[in-house]
């Protein structure tokens, strides 16, 4: 109840710092998060059934809202400074969800199928992980600006991909898994090597390179460029396979046929070599 009634918009009281994962700040926020998301998705579903034009207008308007939000919160955080926001690098999208919050609306506005394959599913996965394991977000028992920003940002990540999947405008196909893997690779390069390069320019440890918040349960010493491709490959592969079982089986059958034909080709080559030797 203190979480609902208390307001420390900057969240700067050091006496209250701690972990509030799976406590009131986290659980209440998650409940509001889910209710709002469900309400919007239900509304979008019926909107799409009623009018395709209105649905597309909604997508474009929401994409614009996402980009505006990403600009506004960065300006606000830059003005306030890291003492009030606990973030000293807001201008650069160092984390995957920060980058996805920019790339997903661009994919919608450009109507790029390739970008949708690359970033839609990964965006949903990142948003889910933030709600399930929100390390360094709920650090005080108050309604504060930093967690509000994170909640809105990750809520945004859910809306467009989930709406597209729910209305069957986007289908998760296993044959597009490799494209999604390339999208994940973009995030790995951005969050590790590019931030490493920026650290060399502006000062060490300014950007959180080699550090993925939601993978810290593997250990703080594990490098992000190893964890993310390994775990992400398995998780994304499982999601695509379960979402398109027929497509997965078809790809496996094609793989078996390829291996079988490859072995047959090798046998033919061996037979020809033997005949030529004789």
Protein model, in words:
The protein is mainly α. It has a domain at 2-186. The protein is built from ten helices and no strands. Helix 8 (177-202) runs antiparallel to helix 9. The radius of gyration is 23 Å and the shape is globular. The relative contact order is 0.12.
Keywords:
single chain; 278 residues; mainly alpha; 72% helix; disordered N terminus
Provide a short characterization of the protein structure.
The chain is mostly helical. It has ten helices and no strands.
Globular, elongated, flat, extended or rod-shaped: what is the shape? Answer: globular
User: What is the helix tally?
Assistant: 10
**First and last CA, distance:** 89 Å
Low confidence ranges: 1-6, 209-221
Radius of gyration: 23 Å
Give a short account of the largest sheet. Answer: none
Helix and strand pattern: HHHHHHHHHH
**Approximately what portion of the residues adopt beta-strand conformation?**
under 5%
Look at the structure and give the mean pLDDT.
79
The helix content, as a percent range, equals: over 70%
Strand segment count: 0
Class derived from helix and strand content: mainly alpha
Question: How are the secondary structure elements laid out?
Answer:
Blueprint: H1 2-5, H2 24-50, H3 52-80, H4 82-85, H5 96-110, H6 113-132, H7 145-166, H8 177-202, H9 224-243, H10 245-277
Helix pairs in contact: 2-3, 2-7, 3-5, 3-7, 5-6, 5-7, 6-7, 6-8, 8-9, 9-10
